Q: What sequence folds into this?
């Protein structure tokens, strides 16, 4: 289980504001939503939205079948875009955590410098 730990600084160095527990595996991607009160995290196959005021996960996790390769949030904060290693790109609604659009890139994404197939 990983944690997301926003930090503050005082005379003793960096100190966590709070520790958010519950992400499966390592947190590989993190993006703030424009409201500044929530963050989106991505692990191996899971996207989650966290409330920074309560430290609790909002809604259900959003799942990829294969390992994720990237994560982004739209400028208006209403959608999350994530991709996996097989070239699938998903657009998720931030409010409902439902998949609203999905498509596949014609070539899978290269991993760790390998050539795309």
A:
């Amino acid at each position: 289980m990983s944690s997301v730990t926003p930090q503050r600084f005082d005379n003793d160095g960096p100190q966590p504001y709070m520790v958010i527990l519950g992400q499966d595996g390592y947190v590989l991607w993190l993006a703030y939503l424009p409201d500044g009160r929530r963050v989106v995290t991505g692990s191996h196959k899971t996207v989650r939205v966290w409330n920074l005021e309560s430290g609790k996960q909002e809604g259900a996790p959003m799942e990829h079948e294969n390992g994720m390769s990237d994560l982004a949030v739209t400028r208006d904060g209403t959608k999350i875009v994530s991709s996996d290693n097989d070239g699938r790109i998903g657009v998720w609604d931030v409010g409902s955590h439902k998949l609203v659009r999905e498509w596949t890139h014609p070539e899978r994404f290269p991993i760790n410098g390998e050539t795309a197939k």
